[in-house]
Design goal:
- The protein is mainly beta.
- The chain has two domains: 267 residues, Thrombin, subunit H, CATH 2.40.10; 96 residues, Roll (Pdz3 Domain).
- It is built from six helices and 26 strands.
- The strands form five sheets. It has a six-stranded antiparallel beta barrel with strand order 13-14-15-18-17-16.
- A hairpin with a 5-residue loop joins strand 7 and strand 8.
- It is globular.
């Protein structure tokens, strides 16, 4: 998957700070930390459509198809709200604020999927159903790398979404975004198309979000975690972020919304529900990414790669012979560079897989055989 670096990425959750001086703060960034596993009960799989439903529509019926889809999916869309702690400033601590985003009900017994950045650092979480009913929820587990979280609410659920097969999506296909922009306008509906599939965005935290769906359906702050739906009434993605531009003085982009594909959502959420975590390959190193400027500054022999600053004793890396000061330049068949960061190359593998690490050590280039262990988060 070939990705291009995006300079300014804005996650579409909302944090509304109650301080008069603070105003409204928008954001949420994926950070590279460990997701904590938690014991959960088993759950019946979400309804899954491997082949998109055959919905016959003509040009004159497109409006009816949209309204029927919204009527079907809308009751399964929720607003996720929580409390975030105030910030310490020069003038003292600001009041606590409220975070908000969107989510979708994936099972009749109350499992709800949203984005990790919607619930990260928030407490006292609850969801507001489409009819205005508010229910407390608990966080079952989260996955920072995929930016997904599973919540659990008790009580009767008004509806459950059907998950479609996002691999079948085509550019130009009509899609509908449903969510709660600004945390206030529940079940807002916007319509657009799939602009492209297989997009990649730089999180700014050492890895890319991959395989994203690009859409021009209007997505605003607060839409995070809400569904992107096709005209068959199937969820094909979860709205996650928007791109505006590179900052002050640069060109401003419109209609650049991105969603996590439904197949990824299905796989990750099922692991979070069944295991309480997502399994990732474990190497056991601390590292720093090398850029051409860093390489030039310190006279390093390569322009990109992962500089190993520490190796955990007894880890797969230790057993493979990796040492502090080594530079990993390739993992398996993936050469590390700006478009192929260390984490993304590592996560092409699963726990228990074996591969070769290409390593620069001083003036020598070595090939070390490694067998990955299991890690529960990036």
């Amino acid at each position: 998957m070939n990705w291009k670096r995006i300079l300014y990425v804005l996650f579409v959750g909302v944090v509304a700070v109650t301080s008069a001086t603070a105003g409204a703060v928008v954001g949420g960034q994926v950070v590279l930390t460990v997701a904590k596993p938690s014991a959960v009960s088993s759950v019946a799989p979400t309804a899954y459509s491997d082949v998109p439903a055959q919905l016959k529509i003509s040009n004159t019926q497109i409006e009816t198809a949209i309204t029927q889809t919204v009527e079907k999916v809308g009751p399964a869309v929720v607003t996720v709200v929580g409390t975030v702690p105030g910030q310490m400033t020069f003038f003292g601590r600001t009041p606590d604020g409220q975070s908000s985003g969107s989510g979708l009900i994936i099972s009749s017994d109350g499992y709800i999927v949203t984005n990790n950045h919607v619930v990260e650092d928030a407490s006292d979480l609850s969801v507001i159903l489409s009819d205005g009913t508010q229910l407390p929820v608990q966080v079952i587990s989260t996955d920072i790398f995929a930016d997904l979280a599973v919540l659990k609410a008790d009580g009767q659920m008004p509806a459950v979404v059907t998950i479609g097969n996002s691999d079948n999506l085509k550019s130009g296909e009509t899609v509908i975004a449903i969510g709660s922009p600004l945390g206030e306008f529940r079940n807002t509906v916007t319509v657009g198309v799939i602009s492209a599939t297989g997009r990649m965005l730089d999180t700014g935290n050492g890895y890319f979000m991959e395989d994203l769906l690009q859409t021009d359906a209007a997505i605003n702050q607060g839409n995070s975690g809400g569904p992107l739906v096709n005209l068959a009434g199937e969820v094909v993605g979860i709205n996650a972020l928007i791109v505006r531009g590179a900052g002050y003085g640069s060109a401003v982009a419109e209609g650049l919304g991105f969603a996590i594909p439904a197949n990824t959502v299905q796989a990750i959420s099922q692991q979070l529900i069944e295991n309480g975590y997502v399994s990732y390959p474990y190497l056991g190193v601390s590292w720093q990414w090398i850029t051409p400027s860093i390489a030039a500054r310190y006279g390093l022999p390569v322009e990109s790669g992962a500089y190993i600053s520490g190796v955990e004793s007894g880890s797969p890396a230790d057993k493979a012979g990796l040492q502090q000061g080594d530079i990993v330049t390739q993992i398996g068949d993936t050469k590390l560079d700006a478009d192929h960061p260390f984490i993304n190359a590592l996560y092409l593998f699963s726990a228990g897989n074996s591969t070769t690490l290409e390593v620069v050590r001083g003036q020598d280039t070595l090939n070390l055989q490694v067998t990955f262990g299991e890690h529960t988060a990036p």
